[in-house]
Design goal:
This protein has 15 helices and 18 strands. The protein has 453 residues and is an alpha/beta fold.
């Protein structure tokens, strides 16, 4: 997809997001009970369970099928949902059902692409969790599948549907802090000194289909630290917290600064915790964008407050102020700007030199602003249901989710190679490193194949 088209989609998505939350109650009332969307959920542990909670409040949605390879998760979710449900451990059995209109995919990252493409072929609309894919090439195939089969898609970057985020983006784009020059985002979690632990390999539990859990990933012995939620610490199944939380933050940042891809990235990382994880526990990544904006993701193995504002996950710094963001609160803080040119220090008149050095003032009309918020996924689920009915673009359609996920994926590649990688967003290739380009795809374990036809 050409860069200009992507930006038009980007703007269109922002406009849709602004209208969706405000009109949600009206749309629900107009839909009527006889227009209920029948939903199947693939992957019901942890995030899948949270998404069940996000879809259940909507009267025009009925969850009719559940799928998971771990029987205790399946049984727990069946009790929560209630009613006459179709239950299976194999997602293709769920996709084969004609009484399902749309699916939620909340499996580990390495499963997203295969299940998404198969759902497109089965004629289902799709809500798929982030990060969208395990590697960049998968994401592009997912975009093409949605286009080929004309499916409504929503990527689970749910802050696109949160009013607090929509208001913050509108303020930043409207010049609340002037020209944005740099942005910092963070993930902190002190796992010292035990981390995941160092449990030995063992036979899988009798109520877990381990081979099906692995799916297209390389064959591996079962280990309690590789499975269920802990898969995020292994590159065969996920990209660590860089793609887990980083995709949320980088999407928010790209949305606010009006960009959909960086022009390059550098990253380094280290491991201080003596466990068997496959991703760094401490890392720093820096992306530079075509307009010159610098964006930094910092992962700290500490519980200390990140940045310069307690609780802030993201800091936008501009020529006229700073925005501090977390899900429950946004602070917009105007800053003093220079009103006289910087002068050379005058040793004969230090008082005048000091006056000139401090010759700054707050921009006229700028005041501190605080926006309260609430971090949940209900509005994002509502937007998906509305768009399934209207066949319109969701707040976070597949192309947007792919672009934001890609930014974090190439950050991990740069960390692996520990060098600056220049990125061609049109071709989705590194310009300066053929070796690094090999990390943009991988070969599926047979019999799994990712094909559009």
């Amino acid at each position: 997809m050409k860069g200009k088209m992507t930006r038009r989609q980007f703007t269109r998505g922002m406009a849709t997001a602004s209208m969706a939350v405000a009109g949600a109650k009206t749309v629900m009332a107009a839909a009527g009970a006889n227009e209920r969307i029948r939903l199947g959920v693939i992957g019901v542990g942890n995030r899948g369970d949270q998404l069940i909670d996000a879809f259940k409040p909507h009267a025009d949605c009925q969850i009719v099928a559940l799928c998971d390879v771990y029987k205790p998760y399946l049984e727990f979710s069946a009790k929560k949902v209630g009613g006459d449900l179709f239950l299976t451990k194999h997602y293709r059995e769920l996709l084969d059902r004609k009484d399902i209109d749309a699916v939620v995919i909340a499996t580990p990252d390495h499963w997203h692409a295969q299940q998404f493409v198969d759902a497109c072929k089965a004629g289902k609309d799709i809500y798929v969790e982030k990060p969208l894919s395990l590697v960049v090439a998968e994401g592009r195939i997912m975009v093409e599948a949605a286009k080929k089969y004309n499916r409504v898609t929503q990527v689970g970057i749910h802050r696109r549907s949160m009013p607090i985020c929509q208001q913050m983006v509108e303020a930043i784009r409207g010049g609340a802090i002037g020209r944005v020059t740099s942005v910092r985002c963070f993930h902190i979690s002190n796992e010292w000194p035990i981390g995941l632990g160092n449990d030995p390999d063992s036979p899988p539990p009798a109520d877990l289909d381990w081979d099906l859990w692995l799916g297209p990933a390389p064959k591996a012995s079962y280990n309690v630290n590789r499975c269920l939620y802990k898969f995020r610490w292994f590159r065969e199944y996920s990209g660590g917290q860089m793609t887990n939380f980083g995709t949320h933050w980088l999407d928010l940042i790209q949305w606010a600064i009006g960009q959909d891809a960086p022009r390059g990235v550098f990253a380094v990382g280290s491991n201080f915790i003596p466990d068997k994880r496959g991703v760094p526990d401490t890392m720093e990544a820096v992306w530079d964008y075509p307009d010159g904006t610098l964006v930094t993701f910092s992962q700290y193995n500490t519980n200390a407050t990140p940045g310069s504002r307690p609780g802030a996950h993201v800091e936008f710094r501009g020529t006229e102020g700073t925005v501090y963001f977390n899900d429950s609160r946004v602070e917009i803080v105007p800053e003093a700007v220079r009103t006289e040119p910087v002068a050379a220090l005058n040793p004969l008149d230090r008082a005048e030199s000091r006056r000139q050095a401090l010759a700054t003032t707050r921009p006229a009309g700028k005041q501190n602003v605080t926006i309260p918020g609430k971090g949940d996924t209900v509005a994002h689920a509502r937007n998906f249901l509305d768009c399934v009915k209207s066949r319109s673009l969701c707040n976070c359609p597949i192309e947007t989710g792919h672009r934001s996920t890609t930014t974090t994926l190439i950050g991990n590649v740069a960390c692996d190679y520990k060098r600056y990688l220049a990125w061609d967003a049109e071709r989705e290739r590194f310009i300066n490193d053929d070796e690094a380009n090999k990390a943009l795809s991988y070969e599926y374990r047979p019999p799994w194949k990712l094909e559009l036809t």
